[in-house]
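Board notes, transcribed. Complex of a protein with iron/sulfur cluster.
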Amino acid sequence: MPRHPLPDWSLPAEQTALIPDISGNTINGLGERAKRRPEIVYWDSPDGLAHGPLQGYFYARYFDSPEIKAAYSADRGPEELSPVAATRVERTPSEWTAAIKTETRVLGAEMVGITAVRREWVYEGHTVAEPWLVIMGLVMDQPRVAMAPSTAEHTTSAVEVAVHIARIDKSSKLLANWVREQGYDAVPRPGQRASGDIMLLPAALEAGFGELGKHGSIIHPVYGSSFRLAAISTDMPLVADAPIDFGADDFCTNCNVCSAACPPDAIFQDKQWVRGDRKWYVDFDKCVPYFNDHYGCGICIADCPWSLPGVAQGLASKLERRRIRKGETGSR
Ligand code: SF4
Ligand code: SF4
C-alpha cells in the first residue's frame, strides 16, 4: 500500500521551547564504554523527567485524535490483579514452561520467550523481585503499519499501534492472573509507553525474539519488526530460551533503508557504544521531535525489508544458505 506523501516538517518553536538542556543520548549512555544500569528517559510519569514536557507535547497531540484515543483506551483487561492462590500447583520447570507458552498464545500472542531477569536491564532506582520474565509479542497488521507516519489527516498506522498497546496491556494482565491462580507471584509489564522497572528489548533478544536492527528495534526471522512487546515477571519455575542469530545483524551492516527513510536522519550508520555495549542506536534527540509531531512516526519499522509481509522467512532462509556455503553457523 503506497504511503501518503510526507508533509514538509521542521522543528516547531513550540517543541524547541520544551527541549531540556540535557541530551536524551547522554541519559541513555551514548558513548559510554563502561557498563551501567539504564535510566528512564521518556516513558514514565513526566514529573521529574527532564524530557517530561516533551512527552506531554506528544500525548496532547496523540489524544487529540479521536480514533487514536478510542483505540488506545479500548479494553485494557482487568483493573485488579487476582490474589496469588494460597496453594501452589506443583509442576516441573519444563512442564510450566510448556504450559505458560500455550497460555500466552491462547491470549493472542504470536510470540513468546522466557529469560532470567538481569540486573543490567533494571532501571536505576527500580527493582524486580521475581527471577523470570515471560516475554510476549503481538504482531501488527503490516499494511496498516506501512502507512506510517501518521498525520492529523491519516492516522492509520498510529491507530494500529494504539490497538496493540491496548491488546498487549490486556494480555499481560490476563497472563499474570493465570500465573497467580496457579499459586505463583506475577507482575504484568506492559512494555512501551510505560517503561516500568525493566527494559524489555534486551530481555526479548535474550529470550530468542530476534536480533537488534539498525533501526533500534528487534528483527524477528518470521515477523520482522512489526510487533509490540510486553512481559510478566514471575517466580514460577521456568526454563530459559536462548538468543538467536540468523544473520540480521550482518544484513543491517549493508542495508540503509531505514536510515535513508528517516526524515530527521536519526539512525546511526555504525554501531555506537552505549553503556558498555557496542550496538545499533537511534539518536534520541533527533528522533523524538519528529516522532512527537507524527503520532509515534514508525517509518523505520514500516520500511524495514524484514517487516514486509512474507519477506522475513525467505530472507532468513537465504542468509542461512549463504552462511552454510561460507561454512559459518547461526542459531535459529
Ligand atoms: S531497514 Fe535495513 S538497516 Fe534498517 S533495520 Fe531493517 S534491515 Fe536493518
Ligand atoms: S521513528 Fe521516525 S524519526 Fe524516529 S528513527 Fe524511526 S523513522 Fe526516524
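The first helix runs from residue 13 to 16. The two ends are 31 Å apart (CA to CA).
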